[in-house]
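Async update (no meeting this week)

Hi team, since we skipped the sync, here's where things stand on the single-chain job. The sequence we agreed to prioritize is pasted below, unchanged from the tracker. I ran it this morning and attached the output directly underneath so nobody has to dig for it. Comments welcome in thread, and please keep replies under the output.
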Amino acid sequence: MTIQQVTTNRSYPKPNVANQLVVDVERLRLALDAIDTDMAARPTSTAVDTLISAAIANVIAGAPGALDTLDELAAALGDNANFAATVANSLASINTALGDRYTKAEADARYVQGAVQVETMFTAAAGQVAFGLTSPIINKPSALVTVDGVVQPTSEYSISQDGLTLTLSEAPGAGAAVRVLALSVAAAGAPADDTITTPKLRDGGVTIPKLAFEGGALSGFRNAIINGNFDFWQRRTSFSGSQSGFVADRWQTVVTGSTHDTSQQAFTVGQTAVPNNPRFFCRVAAASVPGTGNFCYLRQPIEDVRTFAGQTCTVTFWAKADAARSIAVELMQQFGTLVTPQVTGIGTTKVTLGTSWQKITVTAQVPSIANKALGNDSDTSLELLIWFDAGANFNSRTASLGQQSGTFDIAQVQIEAGPAPTPFERRPQAVELDLCQRYYELSAYAIPASGLRVMGQWSSKKRTTPDIQIEEVLDGSGGTVIPVGVNAFRVSTYATTESRVVISGRAEL
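Output:
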């Protein structure tokens, strides 16, 4: 039996002592033929040299004379064996440095001729809102103000005309760290205020927030709540019992089963717990009567259900209680008395109060009124409800507030468009009273002798033809008052002598 051994690399036949000689001779002949064929296929040294020369020529064909050798290339790379890593590290450092650079537009916006950067630190005293600066600040956008490390929006502070006083909208509390980082004026004549000028208008430096929120021409009607400061109580200043009723102008305490004692309360002059020096707040003492459907809440309807429809709005107010208690804040859409009456539970939020004043902020998404039917009696509204006692039937709307008795104080109520609160808006008293009298007006009037009829006129046009009644007869025997549309009324008397009476016109929602 022939043993077919072969070489490892090329598998040429190999002789074996166990084979017959004639067989191995033949196998060796075949191996020599294969070796000869392989050798003939290999290039000669001349051919190899030619190929190498051509390859090198191709490599250096486009290179300049100074870089056509490996030695010249190494010298150009600084003999750096880790040249690729060095380049990568350099690019990374450049990228990091560029990341801390302003763009041209950013640099232009921050450039001020002759300005220097100044950082000032204060430790606030109790009730302190004003802080004196040693170097004047150019304007509000050039300053960064933080309170205990929290950056304050520009709506929460103001800069005086001379740039030397920073005033916060609210006192941060005793011991708070107030920090001011700003560009200050180093050259005479540089602007030190945030006034609206023709160049600023031309250059786009005036924004809607500046116009609307910082005392500009559009300010005055951010707050959809009327009498949110509880300044006007035309009816009287205290109300109690188990019946719902309007209390402060535009506000109604609503009760079922439970009872309430709602009254005007005065702030101590100069107090700083609630900002903006308000004069009054509303106190509701709710007495819960057992019953799953009993409740007590404070309500204001905002005329027209289109108000904030499809938008985000923010409710803010200040509140406290006689003990640790909870209240619930709710918005409700009313579509009029002749159609499906309401959409409840909008943005309902439960809030825990303490015995000290605290600012409450609730953000809500008001539903769109698309495809909704509106009543033809114009009694649509967006209502704000502040729940004090909710029984059991209203837990789903008031975040499980439940039944409770307690005394609750409410001040400076505001509802505005947008997801962020701005400082409480204080309109002129004459404007606020005029807004109140669109819905209710109390007036003294002289009624002539019997047989005479005289037309009278309301000081403010009413929302709709009002309900009129005689509240008090000052002298004489009284008479009759008949409404004549939204602007006027007609009066007459039963007596032969003139009477003086106090009359009211109510056009509430």
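Quick observations from my side:
The chain is about 15% helix and 35% strand.
Residues 108-213 form one domain.
Reply here if anything looks off.
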